[in-house]
Protein: Ribonuclease Z
Amino acid sequence: MRLTVLGCYAATPRTLTNPTAQILEINNHIVLIDCGEGTQVELRRHKVKFSRINHIFISHLHGDHFFGLPGFISTMRLLGREKALHIHGPKGIKEAIILLLKLGDSWTNYPLLFHELSSKESELIFEDNKITVTTIPLDHRIYTNGYLFREKVGKRKLNIEAAEDYGIDKAYFNNIKNGKSITLDNGEVISNSKLTFDPPKPKSYAFCSDTVFDETLASRIKDVDVLYHESTFLESEADLATKTKHSTAQQAAKIAKEANVKTLVLGHYSTRYKSIALFKEEAALIFPNVLLADDGKTFDF
Amino acid sequence: MRLTVLGCYAATPRTLTNPTAQILEINNHIVLIDCGEGTQVELRRHKVKFSRINHIFISHLHGDHFFGLPGFISTMRLLGREKALHIHGPKGIKEAIILLLKLGDSWTNYPLLFHELSSKESELIFEDNKITVTTIPLDHRIYTNGYLFREKVGKRKLNIEAAEDYGIDKAYFNNIKNGKSITLDNGEVISNSKLTFDPPKPKSYAFCSDTVFDETLASRIKDVDVLYHESTFLESEADLATKTKHSTAQQAAKIAKEANVKTLVLGHYSTRYKSIALFKEEAALIFPNVLLADDGKTFDF
Structure:
């Protein structure tokens, strides 16, 4: 599982920092999470092939999380995309995009499929044989969802050495991979677990931005491997965080601890701070395994 | 008169090139012409004070000319703008911006005033004591206007030396600046032209992008000082230019010649070409005084 942070600063694009956008590679899917202005340029900079992105998940309709989407959609048309593109986001996103395409008489040549969200309960919104995606309702100034991405348990891996020791013919290997046990010529049954290795433990990633500090969040992201939790402010601006429905680094750490996640990634920093190192220091007092997102940074989990 | 090119490439933002946006400084006005994605970052890069921009002129509603506008408007709110901001552009622009602000519940704290255009005839759309702005209807795939900016003739400048030679008291200097002649104590009338210098010749700038080659354009921009004319293609792609309602460098030069402009500035280059130098070579065969726009370039006229 690999996370590439295209942008992780709050509010406005600046010369050296970008608003929110992330690429998550998970079990052979490549999804785009949020799409602030300039995202398509950051994708080019990081050599992400636009055509590999089939699903985009938008948390909420503040500009710093979706003003790059109309341009991204238009560019895919100019690049000759033919595959469908799925847009998951709050109700209203379809009306906005359709209006912009209509005004420019720039309809896409590829199917543009909207999956609009309006529920305040967590929903399973995508599932295939590799991953599931569920919403994480968040409490922000406008309707907002985080997203929880979970790998499905993969197939068990064939232990070739063990199979050969039992003298099992290659013709049976596919059966073994599919979980079957094998009966030898002498009648002995070799259980599948003796012929296979456990599959890799499925990974999970929770994206939670933007949100006020909300302790009930922890129960919804229990034991995830990686939590990206916004930390717009430091604790010295806790009042401002509450007022604007954002969180502090310390609050993000409390959620991470309570949810028993493995790794906390902080981001969505207010640009008022000269250095982001303080965010890590503050969070680490409460939750030790904390990483700082930064524009252009890639994390392998 | 100073032109700063923030972006002048066609179609999509890329790592090293930006879509259309320009800052024109003319007679103490600073206006923004078009606003492709990323414009606000380019403004920061060139240290243009956002607050000095009171008028934005949008040529048409293709994304590469206006997808940066919603973010620019939002950022002005975050920066605490209070002054009114005037948006001039095709009908529909208001609906689009208002919808985006509504979805984000991000109404501006400053007055946002839309001046929507739908006429196919040239119109005077702005006038004060310094400049006039008229539309230049263009023929593109969707409703499009160029804009013609003209300085007004300034006041004559006081010739202090001449006034002192005639023994005229300082108390009369304002009258002289305002065009009055002076009667000396001996009854001699000194005409204003003897006491003043001619004001600087007013300058003019015509922005014409995007447009197909249209010879009737020349009559509408006759004798302007500076013509920015799109040249998406070279003559080798003339068919493609006609089909997509764009122009070639040679066609832009023909318009410049026919209109008798002083200087032609080329831009809106397709990104298919490795170097933009060929655009200048091609145009210069027909019209010698040609300049190449490029991102970040500033021209003083």
The longest strand of chain B covers residues 131-138. The first helix of chain B runs from residue 39 to 45.
